[in-house]
Amino acid sequence: MLNSLVPISHLNQGKAAKIISSLGPDDVKIVIKNNEPMAAIIPISRFSELIEAEEKVKGNHYE
Question: Which CATH superfamily is domain 2-58 in?
Fold first, then answer.
């Protein structure tokens, strides 16, 4: 879990590309700001799966 935490300062220091390229298909990086989780970085394939699952639950279709 600890290796999935990314301080927001790393993104501000130009390390975003390295962090994103290190993601595996099932990885999640949690962006921390002021010791609080603020955002998640996930692969686009995982994001697409989440959107599809949400569509099924809600019965909506995003297009």
Answer: YefM-like domain (3.40.1620.10)
